[in-house]
TrEMBL record:
The gene is hemB. It comes from Allorhodopirellula solitaria. GO terms for molecular function: porphobilinogen synthase activity; zinc ion binding. InterPro entries: ALAD (IPR001731), ALAD_AS (IPR030656), Aldolase_TIM (IPR013785). This is Delta-aminolevulinic acid dehydratase. The keyword Magnesium applies. Pathway: Porphyrin-containing compound metabolism; protoporphyrin-IX biosynthesis; coproporphyrinogen-III from 5-aminolevulinate: step 1/4.
Amino acid sequence: MPLRHVFEFLDSQRCAAVPRSAPFRQPQSSVTLPAVPFPPRAPFPATRLRRVRAHDWTRRLTRENSLSASDLIWPLFVFDGSGSQPVASLPGVSRLGIREAVAAARRAVDLGIPAIALFPATDPSRKSDDAREAFNPDNLVCRVTREIKDAVGDAVGVILDVALDPYSSHGQDGLVRDGRVINDETIDVLCQQSVVQADAGCDVIAPSDMMDGRIGRIRSALDAAGHGDTQIMSYAAKYASAFYGPFRDAVGSASNLGAADKKTYQQSPSQSDEAIHEVALDLSEGADSVMVKPGMPYLDIVARVKQTFGVPTFAYQVSGEYAMLQAAGDAGYLDRDAVMMESLLAFKRAGADGILTYFAEAAAERLP
């Protein structure tokens, strides 16, 4: 889609919402409540909405949204070794050795989980300022992908993250020059990273770096390398959030990043319209699907994206969200299973087509 058409579409959406004769008023919020789309019902007592809640069968029969294992994507942390390494800040989650990651892929197939997302805990000795390990064809995540594909084939999709933070000595998602994350040179590396990951057999490339213009460049690089069928799931609306801490512990980038932040390329939590522009640009460059990250604090963004574009839309229930619910369940403050299911259903209600969640295995065990 040409960019001209993208901006014409966004302008028409804005203009349609405000009559030309309406006086200008400074907006106080980006949230607009829609007009009630339903005809009025008979007043109480003729209408009693509790009637359809009276029994389990009628609640199931009138359910507006539902959750199944097919809605889940299971994020897995992998390390170069065998066995498992518990992640202290993610109770119940461990880094998996290569053999264990293959076993988890088989488990996903058995549970009906359609896709897994792999994140490498790279050996610190292989990290560098230029993150060259990211495009090493024999890096950890490429080797694990090949092993999984040899074991289960297309029975489960493999999604690989595209960003430099697992491989950089500074912990940033892009290359750094004079203390600044540089955009265009980073994209050159991301294209190389995407191609070696597709060569390894991954099904979906998921750029999470938030560099401007990277989706179009990655699409072109994949096509030129003969990977025209490899999907791109863009982290299109990714926020500079405080909910990522346990993830950075799991991949070993927290100490590399130190006191630095990612606010010059990830979005501010205050932004909503900007997320729509980010999504529009990524779709115009060839993204097959888009993601909102984090998830639950940004359900309004999930809903806006789905309503605006009608494209496959995913949400990431990130490590901090998971850790809070799991820890509260472990402490007995909340019913873990109940809040797990309620939180996942909330994503579907907001419009998400699927959810990346560390609860994937536990939820799938409890779903029909």
